[in-house]
Write a structure and sequence with these properties.
DNA-binding, Homeodomain-like_sf (chains A, B, C, D), disordered C terminus, 10 helices, Tet_transcr_reg_TetR-rel_C_sf (chains A, B, C, D), coiled coil (chains A, B, C, D), DNA-binding (chains A, B, C, D), homotetramer
Chain lengths: ~210, ~210, ~210, ~210
DNA sequence: AATGAATGAGAATTCATTCAT
DNA sequence: CATGAATGAATTCTCATTCAT
C-alpha cells in the first residue's frame, strides 16, 4: 500500500523481485562509493550480473533504480526494527530499548542509510513523496511509543513535543552514520546510545534527580 | 589558515575575489534548485553574469565551484555567528544564547546550508578534508562553550559527553533545514529552539527540578 | 508469380497465411500512425495478438513485415479493382469508369495506400523491385485500357503518350490520399473524379467542343 | 514570416547560417541515400565537416536537421522558380512557361525534392504545418497564374477547378522525380513537359480544335 | 582579461533478434 | 509451435573543458 509502481517489461513477478534485489544490492554498493550521479547504468547492470538490456527490462529509468534502492532500504530498516522491538508493553524502558534497537539497525546498515539520505534528493518530484512518507511512518512509530509513555504518565509532553522528540531520535540515529567520520572515532555505539538516551529522556522524565539511565 | 588553494589564471586578487563571489552566489541558487550534478558550468557562468570562458579563468574545474561554495557558506555562517555570540562570559545562559543564535543563522541561511550538506559529498578526496575541518572547527566552538560551563561547575560532563553534546547541537541546527518539509510545518523557529534547548540541557544540568529554560 | 519468398520456421502453410494476415493488419495500423521506423516489432506482435517470439516464427526480419504489408495492399487494391472494372468492352466510357473505380478504391484504402507509398522506400534493394513491379503491373492495366480506346479510334495517342497518361491516372489516384489534408477539405471524391477525368480526357479525345464528361 | 525558430547555442548569426548550410547540404545527400531514420547524427556531423558536439551547437534535435533541410529546399525551389518566371504578363503562354520552368526546377533538384517529400512525414506535429504552408504557398502561386488566364477570358474554370489544376501541376512536377525510375527511362524532360501541358490545358482552353501546344 | 565556438568522451536508453524452456 | 527473458550494438544528446581571437 502506497508504493510507487515501477513498471517492468517482464511479466514473471517472482523474477522481477529477484532481479530487482540483485540490482538494488549492486546499486547500493556503487552509490555508496561514487554517488548516484557518478554511477552509470552499465555499471549497475554489470555489478548486478546482467546486461544493460536486461537492466532496462526491469526498470524504466535510472531514477527507478534509486527509488527501488530507497524503498528497499526502508523496508529492510523497518523489518529489522520490528524484529527487535516489542511494542506490546508501554513504559520508558520500552522506549529506551526501541531507541537502542533503532541505533543498532542504523549502525548495521550504515552504507544503506548513508546512500538513502544522501541521494534521495535526486528522486523526481513524483517519487520523492513516496520516500518521505516512509520517513514519516518511521517517525510516527516513535511518536506512538513516546505517546504511550505520556499516556501512562511517565512523561509530560505536549503533542508537538512528542513529535519533535521523535524527530530527534530519528536524526540521532542517522547522525551516527552521517558523522561516522568523526563520531565513530571517539565513541562506541554503546556509549553513543547511552548518552543520547540520557540527553533525550532525563531532561523530560519525571524521575529526574538521579542522573542514571 | 588551512584553506585549499584554488588556482586562477587571473592575477588581480581583487578581481578574483569579486568574480568568485558572483560565481558562488549564482551557484548556490542553482545548486539548491537542481543540485550540483544537474547544474552545468554554462548555467553558472550565465547566472553569474559572465561567459563560460571567463568562468574558467577563475577556476580549474567545476568541482572548484562547489568547493568555493562550501567554503564561502562556512565563512558566512561563522561570521554571522560571531557577530551574535558573546563568548566572553561563561554560563549556561551564554550557551543557550549561542545555541539560539546558531539556530537562527541556520534558519536564515537555509538554502545555503541545504546545498552545503547535500552536495559536499561530491567534493573530491582532496577537497573534502578542508570542508570537514571547518565543520570540526564549528563543532569545537560549541565544545569550548560547553566546556566553560563544565569548568564553571554548571554542568557535569566528561570530555566525550561534551563532544557529543556539541555534535547534537550542530545536527539539530541542520535538522531544522533538512527536515524543513515536516518540521517547519508544525513548529516555529522559536518553539523549536525552546524545546531543543530544554531537551539538550535540562537533562544534564544540575539545577533540574524546575523545568524552565 | 514474381512474389518474393519470405521464409518461415513454421511448416503449416494455412497457419502461416493466417498469422501473416493478422500481422499485416496490425502493422498497417501502426505504420500509418507512427511510420515503419518508429514502430517496434514488439508492438506489431502485441497488436497482432501474439508474442514477439511467435512473430519471428513467421518472418526473418522486421523488413519482412513491411514487404508483406506492401504486397498485401497491392493485392487488395488489385482485387477490389478487378471486381469493379469490366474490361471486356472497349470505349472511352469504360476507361472513365475504370478511373472512377480506381479513385474509389484509393479513397476506401487511404490508410493502406498512404502507408505503402510512404514506407516502401524503406524496403531493401532486394525487396523493392518486387513492389515496383506491382506498380508497373497496375499502370499497365490502365495502359491496356487506354490502348483499346486508341485501337478503337476513340483516342489519338502515341505509345509514349499512352504510358504517360496511365502514370497520370495512377498518380492522381494516389494524390487523393497524399494531399488529403488539403484536397479533401475542398473537394468531394465525386467532384475530384469528375474534374480529373475531364482534364485527362477532354484535351485528348476527338469529341472535344462539348465540355461534358 | 512564418518560419519555425530553430534555436542555436551559438550567437553569431552569420556563422549559424553558414554552419546550417553545410549541415543541410551534407544531410540531403545522406537522407537521399539512406533516409532520415537510417542516417545518424554523427554521420551528418562528419559529412558536414564538424564534430557531433558542434552539430548540436546549431540544432536542438535530429529532427531540427530535417526541418532545416525541408525549409531550405523549399526556399531553393522558390528562388529558382522566381528567377525563371515572369509574372508580369498574363496569358496562357505565361502559364505554360511557368509550368515548364517548374518542371525544370524539379528536374534539377531531383534529389532534394525526393528527400523532402519522402521524409517530411517524419517531422513532428509542431514542425509539419510550417512545411505544409510552403507547399500551399507554392500551389497558390500557380493558382494565381491560372486565375489570371481565367480573368483574361482565356480559360473557363470555377474556383475549385483552378485549385485542383494547380494541385495537378504541383504533383506532375513531383511525379517526374518520384517515378523517375520508370518515367525517365521512357521520356525526356522536354517530351514529358510538352505532353503534360497538353493534357492539362488543351482540354480546358477555349481555343481547342487544333490539338497543338 | 574576456569571449564563445569547438570538441569528443561519455551517458542513458532503445530495440531487433535469439534461444532456452 | 509458442513464449518471453536476455542480449548488446547502436543511437541521440550532453557538457566539462580548451583555445584561438
Amino acid at each position: 500500500m502506497g508504493r510507487k509502481q515501477v513498471p517492468s517489461l517482464v511479466k514473471d513477478e517472482k523474477l522481477i523481485q529477484k532481479r530487482r534485489e540483485e540490482m538494488v544490492k549492486a546499486a547500493v554498493i556503487l552509490f555508496k562509493d561514487k554517488g548516484f550521479h557518478r554511477t552509470t547504468t552499465r555499471e549497475i547492470a554489470k555489478a548486478a550480473g546482467f546486461s544493460i538490456g536486461t537492466l532496462y527490462e526491469y526498470i524504466r529509468t535510472k531514477e527507478d533504480v534509486l527509488y527501488l534502492v530507497c524503498d528497499s532500504i526502508y523496508d529492510e530498516v523497518r523489518s529489522r526494527l520490528q524484529s527487535e522491538i516489542v511494542m506490546d508493553q508501554p513504559g520508558i524502558n520500552r522506549l529506551k530499548e526501541a531507541i537502542a534497537a533503532y541505533f543498532k539497525v542504523m549502525d548495521e546498515m550504515q552504507d544503506e542509510v548513508l546512500v538513502m539520505y544522501q541521494e534521495a534528493k535526486s528522486l523526481s518530484d513524483e517519487a520523492l513523496p513516496y520516500v518521505l512518507r516512509k520517513e514519516i511512518e518511521m517517525t510516527s512509530m516513535f511518536e506512538k511509543l513516546i505517546q504511550r509513555s505520556v499516556d501512562a504518565g511517565n512523561l509530560n509532553l505536549t503533542e508537538k513535543e512528542v513529535n519533535l522528540l521523535a524527530h530527534n531520535i530519528m536524526l540521532q540515529g542517522q547522525m551516527w552514520t552521517f558523522r561516522r567520520w568523526i563520531l565513530q572515532k571517539e565513541h562506541t555505539l554503546e556509549s553513543y546510545t547511552q548518552f543520547q538516551i540520557q540527553i533525550l529522556l532525563n531532561g523530560i522524565a519525571y524521575d529526574q534527580p538521579t542522573n542514571q539511565v
